[in-house]
## 1
Amino acid sequence: MNVHTSGKEPLYYRLYLSMIKDIQQGIYKENEKLPSKRAFADHLGVSQNTIDTAYQMLVTEGYIRAVPRSGFYVNPLDASLTVRQEPMNDISIVETAGVQDKYQFQLSTNSVDVGTFPYATWAKLSKEIMYSQPDLIYPGHQQGDLCLRQAIADYLHKYRSVHCTAAQIIVGAGIEYLIMLLNVLFDSNSMFAMENPGYPKVYQTITNCGRTVEPIDVTDTGIDIASLARSKADIVYVTPSHQFPTGVVMPIGKRLELLRWAYEKTNRYIIEDDYDSELKFTGKPIPSLQGIDNTGKVAYVGTFSRSIAPSVRIAYLVLPPTLLQKYQTLCSYYSPTVSRFEQHTLFQFIKGGHFERNINRNRNTYRKRRDAFVSALKSSPFANQITIMGANAGLHFLLYVQNGMSEPELIASAKAHGICLQGISPYYLKNSKPAESTVLLGFAHHTPEELQQAARLLASIWKT
């Protein structure tokens, strides 16, 4: 036996690990008697207590058995089921943090400006709650604490024209979790449909649940209702207030058409993701689809990850009455997925008016950045070779470039000059054919002056 005499772990623990390895490799045969504690201790030059502790750990885990007045024996093990000891350093770790540092300009859609997060306010509220409400360490209601759900209901009614009570709201750790939850509530044979291009994470979440997803093309007014009607889908996921990634806003006529499609069958439902609804730069935010649904066909989802910070993994789901009854029957035993301390910090953040002020401040900040970026692109030397789309809301827009370069060539040339950006291809589902030479330009990460520099650099790279 090879027992390392040096290391941070106690000697008995190193002996225990060595014996497990020897048993698994067959060095100690099944039903073989092990050396007595005294003999083993003399052989290794250690105390009998060390041997006894290692033996007792092996007995507890079932590797060996103690026979009174006889000794310790190796238990039979199925060789095909033994645990293989994998060295930890053989496991690769994919680390994505710090990728942004490689580029001078970060124009990806998931970038944000850390300076816009209200650190002082959030830290103050969080500290006060931690000290004043220690009972929040205990589990809360499975749908989320009532105070937060009521605050969300009030906000949605006031700003998004959503009609609901706190009882219909479920708080969860991210949109993906809530989509998985909805999957439990829909009929098992229901087929899903999604906008194409669309949100890949939601597509992957739904397919991971064993569902079939039919991509439906997006027109200049949103999802193609005629194609949806021809499909076999019963559930459709849409982003009508600001379609991702095209930025298209679904007009009222098409919203009514979509609701009419859902009304045709009892098992049809619409999942409305109110993506980026707060960040509309021209006119008032578009009222929600849920607000004009009078038969309970819309499940409404939203998140604070975009409006506050990406790491604030608090999202919410508003269930129509029929699905709420199913939830209470099937999921009432679920545990809440968001810390109550974080829930109450967010509640106080909303109650104190900080959330509304933060939204208004961010809207003004990002409007200035969008204006600077769009203006610089339109006045650049290659303005006649580009088309800007979907710039009225959200933190990115589309840029269609007509200079003879393909989408991969556009991305590669930009990255070679220190600009990180994304193409539209990854957002097309099931490898469907994307729009030609179109990229997404995010503007949240940089100041107006930096975005103007980025526009000039893109013009110098892409102008033909």
Note: The domain at 100-114+359-462 is CATH 3.90.1150.10 (Aspartate Aminotransferase, domain 1).
## 2
Amino acid sequence: MTLLDLLLLYLAFRAKQVICDFFLQTTWMATVKGAPFKQGGGKALGLHAGIHAAFTFLLVVLFAPALWWLGIVDFFVHAAIDKIKALVTTRHNWTYKDSRFWWALGLDQEAHNLTHLAYIVVIVLASGGITPG
């Protein structure tokens, strides 16, 4: 993997996060995914995490096809991060009007960023590391 490949992979994961978390996440997903599973939270969270998993799968297949299973890992990791944020914000009744809601959102996004960094490290290592060029 070249430095250019690494940069493209990083930018692809950043774009994936913005697209899946902000452009493809519906109001229903965003507002219901934190609800109890029996009240629709599981369906909303599952659909949202599934979209992320599909995008991760596509990216990984482009860069390191043998690691396709990272898409499955991403489903569970993304869902867990989002569920934790939802539980915290719901427990404290934080809304977009509260600064702590935005702290929680920032930490949520950073957790996703660190997850993507871990995927990138795995992909780079599986690809034989960074080569000049």
Note: Residues 99-126 form the longest helix (28 residues).
